[in-house]
Amino acid sequence: MKKKLAVCALSGLLGLGTLAGYECAFASDVGYFVYDSTYDHTGLGFGTQINLLTLQAPSSETGSVYWTGTASDWTGDAKKNETQAQSLGKFNTLSGLTLILNAAENDTTITIGATTVILYNASGGVNCTLGLDFASYPQEITLVNKGVGGGDVAFTLNDDAVKYIESINSWQSLYLGMTSTLTGTSDGPDTWILTQKVSAVPVPSSALLLGSSILGLVGFASRRRS
């Protein structure tokens, strides 16, 4: 019950009304976006990736983006023209789905406060929430690529969350929204971006075996000629 109340409180804060009729799961029940230290954070300028939420305000920024059932809407310090609830129909799979913070700041650090990704059904009801894998908030991070075009920290959707969401009937009709607080800002803009990490295609063991056999035959023939 407490978990449902937490989700309902968040929904009320965003002005979404009641969740009657919806079975909501909390972040710890579904999965997380896990910190990914290996992701290449470059090439992330506006228009090159999928913007979810852009915040801009001096000192501290708090805002959200959500799906109303008919359109994307926003609250707080979100920049309307660079903020959009995103349809999962953009993706064939959620494996490798990555959330990146592109902080255009002059300072060397920024602090991430309470941040939650929210999954909405097509009617605007909350299906579930997904947290970052921080043990607690706030979390100060070092900016590695200051300025628009370079991400500073990346989080990849974990396997449990991928399996849960993709098990939902017609999951590609769902929408992602978000609420976030950032402090230690100097008027941004600071953007949460969605992208998809592409895994290297593994070489089948049969192909490796064939390659080894061919090399062996070539070596054998060379030894015979000598």
Largest sheet: 12 strands, mixed
Q: How much helical structure, as a percent, in the residues?
A: 10-25%
Strand content: 35-45%
Q: H/E order of the elements?
A: HHEEEEEEEEEEEEHEEH
What form results from the Cα inertia axes?
A: globular
Say what oligomer this is.
Answer: single chain
Using only CA atoms, what is the Rg?
22 Å
Q: Give the low-confidence spans.
A: 1-28, 205-212
Let me know the number of strands: 14
**Number of helix segments?**
4
Query: Can you give the mean pLDDT?
Result: 77
**Structural class of the secondary structure composition?**
alpha+beta
- Distance from N terminus to C terminus (CA atoms, Å) equals 80 Å
Describe the structure.
Strand 8 (109-120) and strand 9 form a beta hairpin. The chain has helices at residues 2-13, 27-30, 159-166, 205-225; strands spanning 32-35, 42-44, 50-55, 58-67, 72-76, 86-87, 97-103, 109-120, 126-132, 139-142, 149-150, 153-157, 175-186, 190-196. Strands 1, 3, 4, 5, 6, 7, 8, 9, 10, 12, 13 and 14 form a 12-stranded mixed sheet that branches. It has 226 residues and is of the alpha+beta class. The longest helix has 21 residues, at 205-225. It has 4 helices and 14 strands. It is globular and about 45 Å long. It is 20% helix and 38% strand.
